[in-house]
Structures are given as structure tokens and as C-alpha cells.
Amino acid sequence: MTKLKSFGCSFIFGSDLNDVNLEHSQASSQSTWPALIARKLNIDYECHALPGQGNFKIYCDILANSRLNDDSVYVINWTWIDRHDYINSQECWDTLRPAQENQLQEFYYKNLHSQLHDMISSASWIVSAAEHLNSLNCNFVMTYMDHNLLMPINPNWHDPRYLEILQQKLKHLLVDFDGLNFLDWSRQNHYPVSSRWHPLEAAHQAAADYWLSYIQSRV
């Protein structure tokens, strides 16, 4: 193993950590738990995470940055399933999020959004990403922010079997922090969290210690 590649949103990018200043640079933090693990293993670190993006963009980033027999470990943190990635009129990636307040966001979440679609879409991208990485003989670790991915769906929502099939695969692909996501685990262990819900340096250091041996065992 010569490199650690990370994928995700702000939790992997390192928003609100001391070495990130988006006003002057788009560089990700070197104090996130994947970056710290790479340093502990004395290997290169390559971050493909971006703040605010959704799971479809994360999936596309994995496809774009994966190679056959890549001597890297891929650390992937899937984000909240209700984010909607799309290509805007300027041919650039953009993302709708529930916390935004604009006309397009209001229309989407009022008229087009559904939790069932979110669950099926994100589950499909995760399974597809895993199958893709396995086909390239790439080592990977996948964790996640949104526990709705694994929740049983309302039986009144059409036929639940098409999601159950995907969820059975997710159970073998996704790992977590003692049954929690990174944010909830940080709060439970009383690590500082920013006002924007981002775990800070102490949480990332603890998470690096938590995952180090697991990632070493995967390569």
C-alpha cells in the first residue's frame, strides 16, 4: 500500500478544522482521520472529498479516481442521502440540500423529493461502487453518515423487496463507529463539535486511532 485515497463530504474534507481556510484555498485538511492514518502508515494521502456534496457525486469521484490494481486503500464516507447532486446550467456540479433556502431547493423538496428514492439511489450507488472497486482489485473501507440507508422502509411504499435486496448487500459493505456515524460517535464521546456539526481535531485523532488497525487489516 502506497497511498490512501479518501472520498466524502465535509466530514472527510475537514471543514472547520484549524488548517482549512476556504476563503484562501480549496485544500483539504491534513488533520482529518484519514489523513492522520496515512501519516501513521507513512503513505501518501489524496483527498477527493468536497464540502456539501451528495452521494451521487461521491460515487462519480470514486469512478473517476480508481485504477486497476491500484496500490491504494480507498476510505469512503457516504453522506446524508437527502442531498441531490446535479449538473447546473453552467455545466458545473451543484448540490441541493434541505438546509438551503432558494427557489430551486424549495421546488425540489416540495415536489420531487422522497425518502424512498433517496434510499434506493444511495444504496445503488454504494453497491455499484463496491462492485467496481472489487472488479479492479482495489482495497476499500466504507462508512456512512445516514442511518436511513439501513432502516426498513414503510411497507406501504410499493414493494419493499427492491430495497431489501440492496440493504442486505449494504450490511456486508458498511462499517460504523460502534453503531454510530462519526458525528454521533464524537458527541457520545464528548469530543468538541463545531456549530456546523463538524467534529474537531480531538475527534479526528480519536477516529484515526479507532480505524488504524482495521484499515491495516484490509490491505
Q: What does this molecule look like?
A:
The protein is globular and about 50 Å long. The protein has one domain (3-217): Rossmann fold, CATH 3.40.50. 35% of the residues are buried. It has 219 residues and is α/β, with parallel strands linked by helices. The model has no long low-confidence stretch (mean pLDDT 94). The longest helix has 21 residues, at 115-135. It is built from eight helices and six strands; from the N terminus they run βααβαβββααβααα.
CATH architectural grouping: 3-Layer(aba) Sandwich
User: What is the CATH topology assignment?
Assistant: Rossmann fold
Q: Strand-and-helix sequence, N→C? A: EHHEHEEEHHEHHH
**Relative helix content:** 40-55%
CATH domain class name: Alpha Beta
The name of the CATH superfamily reads SGNH hydrolase
State the helix count.
8
Rg over CA atoms, rounded to whole Å, is 17 Å
Strand order of the largest sheet: 2-1-3-6
Number of strands: 6
Distance between the termini: 7 Å
The major pleated sheet works out as: 4 strands, parallel
Average pLDDT works out at 94
Number of domains: 1
